[in-house]
Design goal:
Length: 291
């Protein structure tokens, strides 16, 4: 009889195929928790890699849902005098160019437009990383439990056979660190010395973690460096600040450009975006280091 596991490889694959990012993240987090629980029931009450993965996936969910990221960034932006100064210039020029909203509405609209764009990019990068790691490593944990948890003694040949399907070489493509981790986990299963057992388990956790972080580096870098598409955001800001800029009022826009009002406004927006981008990197680093 195979050792009972709560998550099969097929179930991992089904979760991976979930297209909706928020729902997929919730299922990934729950799956990591169940894998961690089953792994601990066989290994003992020691944290395995899935234990940490469940926590990290839950933290990633906050970024994916943007539930606190945008608020964190907004609070950070409000504390930056140079951003406030650049905003004031933009708002003053927007009013001269014909903006009819009050100052606070214009201020909130400008900040919200810029922060929403960068938060969306970070959310997408973290979501892809969440899926990328899960579809590889969660599947291997499920396969390891199905394959090796029924052993009654440490069988190196059985472990080697399990590792045959893992790709040789270093990450991001190779899976040598997962091979080493699988061997260490298998040894820990039958180690009677508690200190040695804990050390083997810790070693395996670190080996999986090294593989994971190397694989995730592109998505980590993208999330940390989430930037604003300057021209896209500038167009959105102009549309928010001067809602008359549309197909029906291109002639009015042309007149404003000739008069120099929107030209100065666009230059001021360029300055504002540059200052926001500079401070966003600090905000994203502080937020994502929780992972």
């Amino acid at each position: 009889m195979p050792f009972p596991v709560t998550i099969t490889m097929e179930e991992v694959d089904q979760i991976t195929l979930q297209a909706e990012p928020v729902l997929r993240n919730l299922k990934i987090t729950q799956c990591y928790y169940e894998l961690s629980t089953v792994f601990a029931s066989r290994m003992g009450l020691q944290a395995n890699w899935c234990t940490f993965a469940a926590w990290a996936s839950k933290q990633a969910g906050q970024t994916i849902r943007r539930q606190d990221l945008q608020q964190t960034l907004e609070m950070m932006m409000e504390r930056e005098p140079e951003i406030e100064a650049a905003l004031s210039v933009v708002i003053t020029l927007a009013k001269k160019a014909g903006a009819d909203a009050d100052v606070e509405q214009l201020r909130q609209s400008a900040l919200a437009t810029m922060l929403a764009a960068s938060a969306t990019q970070a959310s997408d990068a973290v979501s892809r990383g969440n899926k990328k790691v899960f579809e590889e490593i969660a599947r291997e944990f499920s396969r390891f439990m199905n394959s090796c948890f029924t052993d009654t003694i440490y069988d190196r040949m059985h472990v080697d056979a399990f590792c045959q399907s893992l790709l040789p070489g270093d990450p991001p493509r190779g899976q040598d660190w997962l091979r080493q981790a699988s061997t260490a986990y298998a040894q820990a299963l039958f180690e009677e010395d508690e200190k040695q057992k804990a050390e083997l388990n810790l070693l395996a956790n670190l080996q999986v973690g090294f593989h994971e972080q190397t694989r995730l580096q592109p998505e980590i870098a993208e999330a940390l460096n989430a930037t604003i598409n300057k021209e896209q955001v500038k167009a959105q800001l102009l549309n928010k600040l001067l809602p008359g800029i549309n197909i029906r009022s291109r002639f009015l826009l042309f007149i404003k450009r000739v008069a120099g009002n929107t030209g100065l406004l666009e230059k001021a927006i360029d300055v504002l975006i540059g200052r926001v981008q500079y401070h966003l990197r600090s905000g994203f680093t502080a937020h994502l280091m929780k992972l």
